[in-house]
Predict the structure.
Amino acid sequence: MSSARETTRDRSEELFARAVELMPGGVNSPVRAFRAVGGMPQFIRSANGATITDVDGRTYIDYVGSWGPMILGHADPEIVAALQEAATRGTSFGAPNELEVELAEEIVDAVPSIEMVRMVNSGTEATMSAIRLARGVTGRNKLVKFEGCYHGHGDSLLVKAGSGVATLGLPDSPGVPASLAENTLTAPFNDLDSLEQVFKQHADIAAVIIEPIVGNMGCVPPQEGYLKAVRELTSRHGTLLIFDEVMTGFRVARGGAQQLYGVMPDITTLGKIIGGGLPVGAYGGSRDLMDHIAPVGPIYQAGTLSGNPLSMTAGLTTLKRLRDLSIYETLERATSKLCNGLSAAAEDAGIETVINRVGSMWTGFFNREPVTNWTTANKSDRKLFGRFFHAMLDHGVYLAPSQFEAGFVSLAHSDEIIDRTISAAGKAFDSIKG
Ligand SMILES: *Cc1c(COP(=O)(O)O)cnc(C)c1O
């Protein structure tokens, strides 16, 4: 009997053949190309709730969620209606609009350390601008980041950068001037001693940038007390602390990781969820700090489409829904059930896994030891992950095509969807063992 899963992939194959002639690797963002897991990516035609459907008509339960933004699920009816209505009023003004004010109010209300915010168009833009702000304010050039943390593709930040860079095994990127990369120091995540050493060796550190919960080497939570210690160390040295909450903002709690752990950074970067699936990023902090940004202060940063009314509409509609804090309990329950189910299924099949999770972000590592930093994450069995990834696809579940990514559960992931995922995983684990 042939199942729906065995239908052809003619349309995706045809599109991919055209795409690789037109775009590097056939994609506009590297991890999408499936290089880490082998094979060829599906082209997606549509998405709805917890599922995505490819151009050959196959539907998958989706745990990528567009890499984080889709916390309400795909094609949420309220967002679609709001966008349709907003589009009739014009798609871009290049002038102030009311929605920017409302989204800024929502962010300032939610994120404890933000008093003022500047909208940009992506997470990358947010982190690049946050670093310029930190350097401009402190008059120092050096930057500390952590091995395996990804902060977008800005020059200063493509050093030991996790995610797609780790997936492709590129240590750094050609095209990043050594003179810039030299100013980026790195330390292992969850290791205070190493960070203290960096501070002993370098006096002129403008900022420490960190994913307070790492998502980009897979999900790796901070150990007890770690963020607080990083906060104290940076304050002692007059170094600004940047929490890159592009992934964790409005994901792990309405106020992000800083609310969850009660540790306040100087600058916060946001993206993903605050755009509700449209391109948005933002950076913010105290009024004092943000007053250094043009046109009030001398630090320049601008954007033709920044504060775009459609992006603001999708973001605002999403953030208003996330005022209902019971949403985070619902997501916690669903994701806990998912991860427990996956763990049990792996154990039944005799496969060793480590599943890390904070709220609705999670990663199952094919690993024998706890994953607490890049060194331990990197011990995961990528070959086994690749086989699991394809087995899950065959059983109708779409995971991120790399071991070093977080998975996301949305409000559309019902009990029934989670049950179907666990049962698919049971079959997938059985098919890859031995
Ligand atoms: C996704 C991500 C970015 C980059 O955001 P883009 O919108 O892809 O430029 C930066 N930092 C973190 C923590 C991210 O997860």
Remarks:
- The first strand starts at residue 44 and ends at 48.
- The domain at 78-321 is CATH 3.40.640.10 (Aspartate Aminotransferase; domain 2).
- The CA atoms of residues 112 and 255 lie 6 Å apart.
